[in-house]
Amino acid sequence: APLSSVGVIVCSLPLTWLSLQGGKASYAGICETQEYRRRYEALSGLLTSRKTAAERTLFGYQLYINKAWEHAYRKWRTVNEGVNIRHFIKAKAGSICLVWIAVFVMLLLIPEAVGGEVPPGLFMALLSNFFALVQLMSWSLAASVSEIAGYHAFFDDMGVLFGLELSERGEISARPEEFL
Hints:
Blueprint: H1 2-48, H2 53-59, H3 62-114, H4 120-162, E1 165-166, E2 172-173
Antiparallel strand pairs: 1-2
Helix pairs in contact: 1-3, 1-4, 3-4
């Protein structure tokens, strides 16, 4: 049983690292897709707004805006799908790692169950709960740690933004390399 707890700890460390990396990548992907999302939402507003209906009809530019909207939406969807797929693959990799650890722990407990040290009911309960723990760690924990990593990256960006200096005229003086 002590070896099983060491297995859980050893297993949770790579999963936490994968979740942190996934959260940072997810935040970077969100930052990457925001430009496209804003663009297609603004174009959608032009196409559906009652205020712009007269201009759309008078000047006939709805076809042009519709094509621009479609292009922006497809670009956003493509980039967003790529981000989601990468995040899903990392989460599944962590989950598979946990399943292998669960199988390893199960194999460690079989001799104790066969030897009579662990009753069959307790053996089944331990395995059932261990696989439930694997499920919890692979999705809930990974999602929570990923979200925390995204917030951390967001606040790093905000720290850079608030650290910018204002010129005498009240303009922000920023060097592009600060944001790279």
